[in-house]
Model the fold of this input.
Amino acid sequence: MNVRAILIGAGVAALGGFALYDYYSPESRRARAIHEVETLNPDVKGHACLPQGPLQKAFAASVALDALPPSTFDSDARKRGVIKHDCIRGATNHATVDRLLEVGGDDVVAYSAKVIEACNLNRMEYPVPQCVALDILGRRAESTPAAVAALEKVADNRKLAPNVWEGALFRLISLPAWKTTPQLAEKLASETEWEARELLLEKVRERKDPAARGSLETAYGKEVDETTKGRIKAAILEIDNPGKCVAEDEGRGTDGICRYVCRDQNSRARYPKDPKDKGPCPLVRDPDANATNPPVNSAAALAK
Done:
């Protein structure tokens, strides 16, 4: 056989092998997977603030596809409530974001951090790219230190919209390994923003750690907001009275009704004050086994 023909055939085979390797390389597979997310909404017009890069179109598709339809918002108040909830606590619909997380690799963390820095939109504009970026960072924070660091940077930047930095804070305090319960209670005493204190207190109450009692007492002594002060007192009562229902208003019952939160039973209870009793409501009650009350809603304080 002609030596030249053999060499040409070997070269072609080698090139074919390299092409086949390139097609199945991790980088190529990832690029195709990202493109598949893009094709879910190929005509999407992403927000102008989205940074340039390989993830731009896929991120824009995720923002658009996971958003609620405009018909959801029957009022501006409803829209504000959804924006606030999605930014702080996370969106209820995140199917496309989940796909982007699967294929985006570590780059999706860096890109999401850039989105938060670049996009500072009107408070009534929906959907909000920053909120989607927070969801991505929050999910990756469970396994990626870079995502935790990005969230910490956002939470410390009080120049951002409150919904954004509070959303970063909430995702951090939701990580069991980020801070101990006493450390969260210590932050409660030094935090200056009311809604941030409410978020911290929510997580402290969920954990019911006796080691946080001292820090809670310090925070109680410093608190000036009557509502939050009552909830800090309730947190202390829940530590001291496991399984019981506790008052969140320090027993004031100003409208003649004694109200209680029963966290272990995930319910609320209310009882009329005895008109003969001029004193405050009891701070602690046994749960009513026959009660059918609405569940405890941790988001209630932030939905107002």
